[in-house]
Specification:
Helices cover about 45% and strands about 15% of the residues. Helix 7 runs parallel beside helix 8. It is an alpha/beta fold. The strands form three sheets. A seven-stranded mixed β-sheet has the order 2-8-7-6-5-3-4, with helices on both faces. A four-stranded antiparallel β-sheet has the order 9-10-13-12, with helices on one face. A two-stranded parallel ribbon has the order 1-11. The longest helix is centred in the C-terminal third of the chain and has 23 residues. The N and C termini lie far apart (about 45 Å). The protein binds pyridoxal-5'-phosphate. Pyridoxal-5'-phosphate binds next to helix 5.
């Protein structure tokens, strides 16, 4: 950071402090990860200087549809990035690699297939859905008519509730995917219900995409009409988004991203996404994805052994939720105390939440970042005991 510090002592020092925080703390935030140095370097490269509104794909005329000159190399790069992501998920779906974030991917995906006022059936937010899945303070809740399905008394997505509500509200779109859900999602069952009611089916696999790429979670391809993801969570790439869609939706998806939702693509991030895809195709990536899941089970089991209640009673993926409903302190209180102890996680609502979203009765725990840093099952068991010690202190 010497170079940045010379240019700006304030910014350089803050980046250095944040780097040290990330390196020294035990990072358990389920939506975070550490991408490779190569991805970081690509994201800080000269591609940041280039404008390339439009798309590289050769359309009817044989020309690209860029609005700028000088795009020869970024055209090649963006097409390469698309090819690699199709390989990662072994799919012939169209892919758009330009969304700046997961939220923008969802914004464009909805636009591609819906009109304002159309109905979306999605997972309720206090049961694990994301802000862009219909929160009243988000564009999704404001532009579309939202109906939510719930989890059952064990905390599993209630497929009977999905079917019942789909038949009642006849949505134009059925959406699944979550920010805080620890079990396998049955994409085939969702697709069947969408077919019954003539709805589009979309999967936001932002959280589990790295596990799908590593064959640790069933794939939504073949079932969903549209699949969106972020690239920075379990996938372990740069901060950004991707949209995949059945080929007949390609033009609608592209025009929903540019010119509807965004201007110039971030070609430096697209370079990072391409490197991330290459990494995801290597055998070591499968080992990483497997270890994320194995670690998560071991970590979660240790909490259960220590007497804690876990939503759904366990985990199949990279995340689980500790249920603190019966504790005299909130998820926020535990988050703060763990922060002081060098353990980073975040508060999260639990099913049938009784506290406010600012306080919550749960914390969300993920294993992807520390798995990237080399943690194995025994390391996570030790962390469970550290968290337990902090909680015991809070109960004194
Ligand atoms: N979708 C899901 C399921 C998420 O969990 C998130 C982020 O947490 C997003 C979308 C949005 O991603 P971003 O923060 O890049 O907008």
């Amino acid at each position: 950071y010497k170079f940045i510090k010379q240019a700006s002592p304030v910014v350089g020092e803050l980046i250095e402090k944040e780097y040290n925080r990330q390196k020294d703390n035990i990072e358990l935030i389920a939506s975070e990860n550490y991408c490779s140095e190569a991805v970081l370097a690509a994201c800080g490269s000269c591609l940041s200087w280039k404008y390339a509104e439009g798309y590289p794909y050769v359309r009817t005329s044989g020309n690209t549809s860029r609005y700028y000159g000088g795009t020869k190399y970024v055209d090649e790069l963006e097409e390469y990035c698309c090819t690699k992501w199709k390989e990662v998920f072994d799919t012939d779906y169209h892919v758009n690699v330009q969304p700046h974030s997961g939220s923008q991917a969802n914004f464009a995906a909805y636009k591609a297939i819906l009109k304002p006022g159309d109905t979306i059936l999605s997972l309720s937010l206090d049961n694990g859905g994301h802000l862009t899945h219909g929160s009243s303070v988000n564009f999704s809740g404001k532009l579309y008519d939202m109906v939510f399905y719930d989890v059952d008394e064990r905390g599993y997505i209630d497929m009977e509730d999905v079917r019942k509500k789909a038949h009642e509200c006849k949505p134009q779109l059925i959406l699944t995917g979550a920010s805080a859900y620890s079990r396998i999602i049955d994409f085939a069952a969702f697709a069947e219900i969408a077919k019954e009611v003539g709805a589009y089916f979309m999967v936001d696999m932002a959280h589990i995409a790295g596990l799908v790429a590593g064959n640790e979670h069933p794939s939504p391809f073949g079932y969903a009409d549209i699949v969106t993801t972020t690239t920075h969570k379990t996938l372990r790439g740069p901060r950004g988004g991707l949209i995949f869609g059945r080929t007949e939706l390609a033009k609608k998806i592209d025009s929903a991203v540019f010119p509807y939702a965004q201007g110039g693509p971030l070609e430096h991030i697209i370079a990072g996404k391409a490197i991330c895809a290459e990494e995801a195709l290597r055998p070591e990536y499968k080992e990483y994805a497997h270890q994320v899941v194995v670690n998560c089970k071991a970590f979660c089991d240790e909490f259960i052994k220590l007497g804690y209640k876990v939503v759904t009673g366990g985990t199949d993926n990279h995340v689980f939720l500790l249920d603190l409903t019966e504790f005299p302190f909130s998820g926020k209180d535990l988050q703060d105390r763990l922060d002081d102890a060098g353990i980073t996680l975040n508060k999260n609502c639990v099913p049938n939440e009784t506290r406010s979203p600012k306080e919550t009765s749960g914390v969300r725990i993920g294993t992807a970042p520390m798995t990237t840093r080399g943690y194995k099952e025994e390391d996570f068991r030790e962390v469970a005991h550290k968290v337990d010690a902090v909680i015991k202190e809070m109960l004194k």
